[in-house]
Design goal:
The complex is a heterodimer of chains A (121) and B (420).
Chain A: E1 2-7, E2 16-22, E3 25-30, H1 35-46, E4 49-50, E5 53-59, E6 65-70, E7 74-75, H2 79-87, E8 90-92, E9 100-102, E10 112-114
Parallel strand pairs in A: 5-8
Antiparallel strand pairs in A: 1-2, 2-3, 4-7, 5-6, 6-10, 9-10
Chain B: E1 2-9, H1 13-24, E2 30-33, E3 49-51, E4 60-61, H2 62-75, E5 80-81, E6 85-89, E7 94-99, E8 103-114, E9 118-120, E10 136-138, H3 139-149, E11 156-160, H4 164-175, E12 179-185, H5 194-201, E13 208-210, E14 212-218, E15 225-230, E16 243-246, E17 249-252, E18 256-258, H6 261-265, E19 290-292, H7 303-321, E20 331-336, E21 340-344, E22 347-349, E23 356-363, E24 367-376, E25 379-389, E26 395-400, H8 401-405, E27 412-418
Parallel strand pairs in B: 1-2, 1-8, 2-5, 8-19, 10-17, 11-12, 11-17, 12-13, 20-27
Antiparallel strand pairs in B: 3-4, 6-7, 7-8, 9-18, 14-15, 15-16, 20-22, 21-23, 23-26, 24-25, 24-27
Helix pairs in contact in B: 1-2, 1-7, 3-4, 4-5
Classes of the chains: A alpha+beta (121), B alpha/beta (420).
Chain lengths: 121, 420
């Protein structure tokens, strides 16, 4: 049996939650105060995901960079691969908010989209 | 002299929401004055997500949140001037501003909405000993450099202060290839949201040292390292607890100060606790027709509440311009007591309040299983249990006009935290 400890992020209480796992499945959650903590801990220990935000270089735009995000959350262990992939990207202005900057980033099936518009200079 | 019904100082989240609300409440002659080259304010550099959960029921990045309000401003054809610096406002609402196209100009406003936001507390305000080398940045400056200008300000970083911007920058610098060695916090608790501590520090194994501060900065030209020490109950460094960290950059995330030079200049009364204007139920300052909202009024944690507050300010300013006569009535003092540091608003005139009024406040320490109590004079009318309250998380209580009308003679409404 495996035990994982984590801090709940659902509210300022920040419960220290202990999750017991067996063969990759949650068998018990303790230390939480409410149902939200139980749900959060279950997901967080099995398959933690995050929205990743960063910037990429812009060519010929009114700003040197444009802010971007993963359109959906991706696996937490792919965060650094995702950031590395974005370092290689340069986009030509103009850019509209929501434009796809990079498709299927590091084979996550998730696109990188612009979160801001950039005009041509 | 040029005239304008409502001049809004600042085109960030507060200014935009106030302008939209004023327009939607029937005032066409609204003007936003913004000193930056684009609308949106600080949201433009906050590229992380988590904005708008309350307003839009989805998690947006800062620029996306701003874009919704900018789009609405454009749709409503609300005029704005960019790269325009307001220099002075008089008590009779003459706004003096300047920009490249028009030079110096003046506008006589019927109403003014103060929405200038806040700025970061700097090293000078902290009295950190040591040299004055390059490499000491406020967290927000570093955020602007990384997210908007495309520069990484350093490779090895120590962060003082665990406010949200500091936590967000710990993650951002890490993702961009810097090594964030430690985040030190003077207080025994973090001023940041729990979610940010987990997702910005724990996710990357960055240690958070509570009750620690910087006691020395080493380096003459560039930061070479900093010394942390533990502090006692009176926030004094404890000899013998010093730890040296080599680094080339120190980020400061040590609090925000509402930017009220213009407000002070025109004679607006400022609260020594919030450093923002003292306002009544209409978010109106001691000067009639001058309203305040957002971080210039008091520093918020969530932009959603800034937008909500600004919407109320815009509506109230519109009512003022339309000469919807303010009724005379008893002015009730809203008084913060045990555990409550301040309230916004500071006074309530029941006849002028909306059906429901949100009173926002902060507590002075971390409380678990305590109660928010509201007294109308000596009678306790609200007694609400909260599992946890912390100075870093703003609290709110909604007061109902209907209920207040049943207490026509009260002089004060007192907010306090009670153990039971």
């Amino acid at each position: 049996m495996e035990q994982k400890k984590l801090t709940c992020i659902c509210c300022p209480l920040g419960c220290q939650i202990i999750v017991e796992l067996e063969n990759g499945e949650v068998i018990s959650v303790s230390g939480n105060t409410c149902k939200r903590g139980e749900d959060y801990a279950g997901k967080e220990v099995i398959a933690p995901t995050r929205i990743v935000t960063s910037t990429v270089k812009v060519i010929g735009g009114s700003a040197p960079t444009v802010s971007v995000k993963t359109k959906a959350d991706i696996s937490k262990n792919k965060i650094f691969d995702c950031i590395r992939a974005l370092k290689e990207v340069e986009v030509q202005a103009p850019i509209k908010i929501g434009d796809i900057i990079l498709s299927n980033v590091v084979d996550t099936g998730v696109d990188i989209v612009a979160t801001k518009g950039v005009e041509v200079i | 002299m040029r005239t304008c019904d409502i001049v809004i100082i600042g085109g960030g989240p507060a200014g935009l929401a106030a302008a939209i609300s004023a327009k939607e409440n029937g005032i066409d002659d609204v003007l936003i004055l913004e000193r930056d080259k684009e609308l949106g304010g600080i949201l433009n550099q906050c590229i992380h997500n988590g904005f708008g959960l309350h307003t839009f029921k989805e998690e947006l990045t800062g620029p996306e949140y701003a874009s919704r309000f900018i789009a609405k401003t454009e749709e409503l054809k609300i005029p704005y001037k960019l790269q325009t610096m307001v220099l002075d406002i008089t008590a009779d609402k003459i706004v003096t501003a300047m920009n490249k196209e028009e030079g110096l100009f003046q506008i006589q406003a019927k109403a003014v909405i103060l929405a200038m936001g806040c700025r970061e507390r700097s090293r000078g305000a902290l009295n950190i000993p040591g040299y004055r080398p390059a490499g000491v940045y406020s967290a927000g400056t570093a955020q602007r450099l990384v997210n908007m200008e495309g520069f990484l300000p350093g490779r090895e970083v120590v962060i003082l202060g665990s406010g949200d911007i500091g936590l967000i920058m710990a993650r951002r610098m890490t993702l961009e290839g810097a090594k964030v060695k430690v985040v030190a916090e003077l207080m025994p608790y973090s001023g940041g949201l729990k979610r940010n501590i987990v997702q910005c520090l724990d996710d990357f194994g960055i240690p958070l040292k509570l009750s620690y501060t910087v006691v020395d900065i080493k380096g003459r030209e560039r930061v070479e390292g900093i010394t942390l020490a533990q502090v006692d109950g009176a926030n004094k460094p404890i000899p013998g607890t010093e730890e040296f960290y080599s680094c080339d950059t120190l980020l400061l995330s040590v609090g925000l100060i509402p930017e009220n030079e213009l407000s002070r200049g025109m004679g607006v009364e400022i609260s020594p606790i919030t450093n923002g204007p003292v306002v009544n139920e209409s978010l109106e300052t001691n000067i009639e027709g001058v309203f305040a909202c957002g971080n210039v009024l008091h520093v918020h944690d969530l932009v959603d509440y800034v937008s909500e507050e600004a919407k109320a300010a815009g509506k109230n300013a519109a009512a003022y311009v339309k000469h919807i006569s303010k009724k005379e009535g008893t002015i009730i003092q809203v008084v913060p007591n045990d555990g409550v540091r301040y309230t916004v608003p500071s006074t309530i005139c029941v006849v002028n309040m909306s059906e429901e009024l949100i009173v926002r406040f902060r507590v002075g320490a971390v409380y678990r299983n305590a109660f928010i109590s509201v007294y109308y004079d000596n009678e306790r009318v609200i007694h609400r249990k909260r599992l946890v309250m912390a100075p870093g998380e703003m609290e709110e209580v909604k007061l109902k006009k209907e209920q207040l009308e049943q207490y026509p003679d009260i002089q004060k409404i007192m907010f306090q935290i009670e153990e039971k």
